[in-house]
UniProtKB/TrEMBL annotation:
Annotated protein name in UniProt: N-acetyltransferase domain-containing protein
Coiled coil (residue ranges): none
An annotated Gene Ontology molecular function: acyltransferase activity, transferring groups other than amino-acyl groups
Superkingdom, taxonomy of origin: Bacteria
Gene3D superfamilies: 3.40.630.30
PROSITE patterns registered for this protein in UniProt: GNAT
């Protein structure tokens, strides 16, 4: 079940991100999140803005992601391609799981698609696991964007036409 994250979830959320950073580092992706991303203060802001969600089974949290609908400054400039459209979109950021439950990306995507049918997401060139999942679930590569620290990311968009 997906639900909004609460401040009391932060310790478990930080644990999940630590697991994800280790997984990425062990699989050749040491640059995307480094050793400390995302910072606790960022997650506190996400909770305050009601844009951080957790996936839980029973009373145990297994996954976390940020989701917001509306323009994302990170996506205002794209090179080596273009967005599929300029319609209102939702953005998925910082998705991570603890490894104990499979299918968190699929659950996240279903949750987001219930809210808006135009989605954007990005990932690091070295994050082959995420690239595979993103493409498996129908996102199309649109080009390259740059995150706040200036590093490039592969940008994807999913559009479900009704």
């Amino acid at each position: 079940m997906m639900r909004l994250a609460k401040y009391e979830d932060l310790d478990k959320i930080m644990d999940i991100y630590a697991i994800a950073r280790k997984y990425m580092a062990d699989n050749g992706n040491v640059m995307q999140w480094g050793e400390t991303y995302p910072e606790r203060e960022m997650l506190e802001d996400d909770i305050m803005n009601k844009q951080l969600f957790v996936y839980e089974e029973g009373d145990k949290i297994h996954g976390v992601f940020a989701f917001m609908i509306g323009p994302d400054e990170t996506y205002s400039y794209i090179e080596k391609g273009s967005w599929k459209n300029n319609d209102l979109y939702g953005t998925i950021h910082r998705i991570a799981g603890d490894g104990a439950v499979k299918g968190i990306f699929s659950q996240c995507l279903d949750f987001c698609k219930e809210r808006i049918s135009n989605l954007r997401i990005d990932t690091h060139n070295d994050n082959h696991t995420m690239q595979h999942l993103i493409e498996k679930y129908g996102f199309e590569k649109c080009g390259i964007i740059y995150v706040q620290d200036g590093t490039p990311r592969i940008a994807y968009q999913y559009v479900e036409y009704k």
